[in-house]
Specification:
Radius of gyration: 21 Å
Strand content: under 5%
CATH architecture: Up-down Bundle
Subcellular location: Membrane
Membrane topology: Multi-pass membrane protein
Protein name: MFS transporter, NNP family, nitrate/nitrite transporter
CATH superfamily: MFS general substrate transporter like domains
Number of strands: 0
Structural class: mainly alpha
CATH class: Mainly Alpha
Organism: Duganella sacchari
CATH topology: Growth Hormone, Chain: A
Shape: globular
Number of domains: 1
Largest sheet: none
Main location: membrane
Length: 431
């Protein structure tokens, strides 16, 4: 019977583990591209709908709010139905509002579709779930972080590509209004294509698909109970809620920056839409290697058998993120702002990877519930940051406060330390 992969062979798609690895990051990439496709076009959309700063803040909050609920739900759904069916369903249903936003005719309709698009952000939980059940403990941190990082890069690519895509359609002779709408149809179509690819070329775990395995009486790690039972088991574990906070302080900040970066560079530093898109895109593109670096570093630090080295690394990374965020908030010109953004972005992405390098070890009986709750924490952090900016009305002041809060929340990583018994059991399993 097939078992979890003990190595990552990037150039191979001959095994179910590597097919799942490559297709799950590709699906995640498409979902994140779709999720953040509106953000770099907001300066144009703002002008067309005559949006106020408060309305823009509402749109940014809506973009991440519904993801909280969907992430909580989709983790246990992975336990119950398997990641293959869960991802296929999310891609197909998520494509509807992504295409629908291109037909918005008012602030209210745009807000509604932007809210619904947030469901695509739950793709992250399925990606982490799928790689967690496919890879063995000694490489699972790297696998989780690499898949998430490459998928996360979809947000960065969207920042740079969407303004160019809109410009290309305008060059064909259409109006700017029709141009941004045509550009937003593209990610929706990509989601539909990806849904069919994912369903036909992946399987739930190394042994096969959950439905057939359960029918044959096979015990499935991570998907044994599923549904509400998985959620309750995860919710009863205090480490889940500590990492819920830390993930809100790293991934939540990442989402927040994705949503405000382009318009911040345009309004504060007077960059053009294309320049702002490239600057904002560089933050997201760090995910191509930085998140994987965080997971790889976590695996290396824990290679000696001490699971607690993973949480110590997370603590250090979050301190670096908080310091970098303060530097970004007080940058005096665009060049310094971009440099500071890349500095704190490196720590932010690495902290995200390091967080999900810990997730597979919290409770193997409820992997979906654990991944879902902690993943939702990222969106809670983004929503909280959005409300903070809406309340303060000043982006720089918001960034400064967030930098301090991130540094304080790093303490939650230390509080999530594992018992000596768990550390010893993990060391034996990894050996």
């Amino acid at each position: 019977m097939a078992s979890k992969a003990t190595s990552i062979k990037l150039l191979s798609i001959s095994t179910p583990q590597m097919r799942a690895f490559h297709l799950t990051w590709m699906a995640f990439f498409v979902c994140f591209f779709a999720w953040f496709a509106c953000a770099p076009l907001m300066p144009v959309i703002k002008g067309e709908f005559g949006l106020t700063p408060a309305q823009i803040a509402n749109i940014n909050i809506a973009a991440v709010a519904v993801t909280i609920l969907v992430r909580l739900i989709v983790g246990p759904l992975c336990d119950h139905f398997g990641p293959r069916k869960a991802y296929t369903g999310l891609l197909l249903l998520g494509s509807i509002p992504v295409i629908g936003v291109a037909f918005a005719q008012s602030y209210e309709s745009f807000l509604f579709f932007r809210l619904a698009i947030g469901a695509a952000g739950a793709s992250f939980v399925i990606t982490q779930y799928h790689t967690s059940v496919m890879f063995a403990p000694k490489v699972v941190g790297t696998a989780n972080a690499a898949a998430a990082g490459w998928g996360n890069a979809g947000g960065g690519v969207a920042q740079a590509a969407m303004p160019l895509l809109m410009s290309a359609t305008v060059m064909l002779g259409v109006t700017e209004t029709l141009g941004w709408r045509a550009a937003l149809v593209v990610p929706g179509v990509l989601m539909i294509v990806m849904a069919f690819v994912y369903y036909n070329f992946t399987q739930d775990c190394p042994q096969g698909n959950y439905k057939e395995l359960r029918a044959a009486g096979v015990v499935i790690e991570g998907g044994k109970k599923g549904g509400w039972s998985s959620f309750k088991l995860a919710a009863a574990n205090y480490r889940v809620w500590l990492l819920f906070i830390t993930y809100g302080a790293c991934f939540g900040i990442e989402i927040f920056i994705h949503n405000i970066a382009a318009i911040y560079y345009v309004d504060h530093f007077k960059l053009t839409l294309a320049q702002a898109g490239m600057a904002a895109g560089s933050f997201g593109l760090l995910a191509l290697f930085a998140r994987a670096l965080g997971g790889w570093a976590s695996d290396r630090f824990a290679a000696g058998g001490n699971l607690n080295n993973r949480v110590i690394l997370l603590f250090v990374l979050m301190l670096g993120e908080g310091a970098g965020l303060l530097m970004f908030a007080h940058a005096g010109n665009a060049v310094l702002a971009i440099a500071a953004m890349l500095f704190f972005g490196l720590f932010t992405h690495m902290a995200c990877g390091a967080t999900y390098a810990v997730v597979p070890f919290i409770d193997k009986r409820a992997l979906g519930g654990v991944a879902g709750i902690i993943g939702a924490g990222g969106n809670v952090g983004a929503v909280a940051a959005g409300f903070l900016m809406k309340g303060l009305g000043d982006t720089q002041q918001t960034l400064s406060i967030l930098g301090v809060l991130v540094a304080i929340s790093a303490l939650c990583a230390l509080a999530a330390r594992f018992s000596s018994v768990t550390v010893q059991e993990t060391a034996i399993a990894t050996a």
